């Protein structure tokens, strides 16, 4: 199964350096972008758009996930931002499933390589399962297994209301209230804050605290750095020392267990979107069936060891187990669906 040689070692080392640099840069940039969006978009708006109580919240989450060109790992910073902003747990999980599976790069390459029929079936199957999984996890109250997101969201909004209430509690505004909202109380309210004080808050709201946002992004990166490097090391080892020939040989059309095996093998492989479809095309030429091929793509794109290690910082083991069940279940179900539809899709 494993191929130990100097070439394998060099391949694994090169992949480790590439993934470590790429994922580190992506994580910091995405964390910063999410921080900017959070600063501009009030938490109340996020909660309204991605509410678990509305069916539109799940569809909005799926739409956001389908247009974000993220792999399974680079989805995590935005997922963290949605949780901290108070988005519904169900829609947030739908986003987590949809983002890597309906990645526009994956969809585009699938269309070019396998044609529109395969792509449409793939999109319909993954979207339907992602929506159902989000609703089911919300109904089963899996949101209680999220680690420390609610306190951060509330503390973010605490200082502003407190400061706003303090200047308004002066005796003059109380007298202004008794005057039945006449034009004078409005002037009294304005006079409560001198023109200089009134001019200062406006620029502060208009300007973004760039340094603070960068510090927040780097702080999040430092917190997950050990998990990130551990996952990258595992993925690089698998990439360098497990030959593709072994995968193709054990997932051929004649193997009845090819679909579940391909679904499970795809997760530790950590398949990048840019290499996913070319590798799949190569496996097809080596005899891998269409069902096993799709199971491999969904398993590889939907989850990875690196992503699971990163998710461990946000979720408890109950959600991690449910996440794996959904991804592997989707991969296996879609694999057998594609096997049954192979004559029509050919």
From TrEMBL:
<protein>
    <submittedName>
        <fullName>Permease</fullName>
    </submittedName>
</protein>
<comment type="similarity">
    <text>Belongs to the UPF0718 family.</text>
</comment>
<feature type="transmembrane region" description="Helical">
    <location>
        <begin position="283"/>
        <end position="306"/>
    </location>
</feature>
<dbReference type="InterPro" id="IPR005524">
    <property type="entry name" value="DUF318"/>
</dbReference>
<feature type="transmembrane region" description="Helical">
    <location>
        <begin position="95"/>
        <end position="114"/>
    </location>
</feature>
<feature type="transmembrane region" description="Helical">
    <location>
        <begin position="120"/>
        <end position="137"/>
    </location>
</feature>
<feature type="transmembrane region" description="Helical">
    <location>
        <begin position="224"/>
        <end position="242"/>
    </location>
</feature>
<keyword id="KW-0472">Membrane</keyword>
<feature type="transmembrane region" description="Helical">
    <location>
        <begin position="254"/>
        <end position="271"/>
    </location>
</feature>
<keyword id="KW-1133">Transmembrane helix</keyword>
<dbReference type="InterPro" id="IPR053166">
    <property type="entry name" value="UPF0718_permease"/>
</dbReference>
<dbReference type="GO" id="GO:0005886">
    <property type="term" value="C:plasma membrane"/>
</dbReference>
<feature type="transmembrane region" description="Helical">
    <location>
        <begin position="318"/>
        <end position="341"/>
    </location>
</feature>
<feature type="transmembrane region" description="Helical">
    <location>
        <begin position="57"/>
        <end position="83"/>
    </location>
</feature>
<keyword id="KW-0812">Transmembrane</keyword>
<dbReference type="Pfam" id="PF03773">
    <property type="entry name" value="ArsP_1"/>
</dbReference>
<keyword id="KW-1003">Cell membrane</keyword>
<feature type="transmembrane region" description="Helical">
    <location>
        <begin position="12"/>
        <end position="37"/>
    </location>
</feature>
